[in-house]
Specification:
By secondary structure, the chain is an all-alpha fold. Helices cover 63% and strands 0% of the residues. The longest helix is centred in the middle third of the chain and has 30 residues.
């Protein structure tokens, strides 16, 4: 009364169904990347604008507390200086081919 187990328990490799490759043009990928960057920038600008509105730096300066304005001015000048330095350094570099 033995059972025939010859067909059971074997590893049957499955043959993957080949699908047609979908090639997207580079222009389409660049367009999607640009759109995502623009959307991300819009969200960041909105968040910063809301933060500035809630901080009420101008109101604090009018009331006589200039600390918040001084810090904001220092950070702005620091970022402007870094941007200017980067522009000067980039102008000295020879163009790449």
């Amino acid at each position: 009364m033995s059972k025939d187990l010859s067909g059971r328990g074997e590893f049957q490799p499955t043959i993957p169904q080949a699908s047609a490759p979908k090639h997207r043009s580079i222009a389409f990928v660049e367009l999607m990347t640009t759109a995502a960057l623009a959307l991300s920038t819009a969200v960041a600008v909105t968040a910063v604008s809301i933060g500035i509105a809630r901080a009420d730096v101008a109101g604090a300066v009018v009331k006589g507390d200039g600390t918040a304005f001084a810090v904001a001015l220092l950070i702005g000048l620091l970022l402007s200086g870094m941007g200017g330095l980067t522009a000067l350094m980039a102008a000295d570099q020879p163009p790449r081919d």
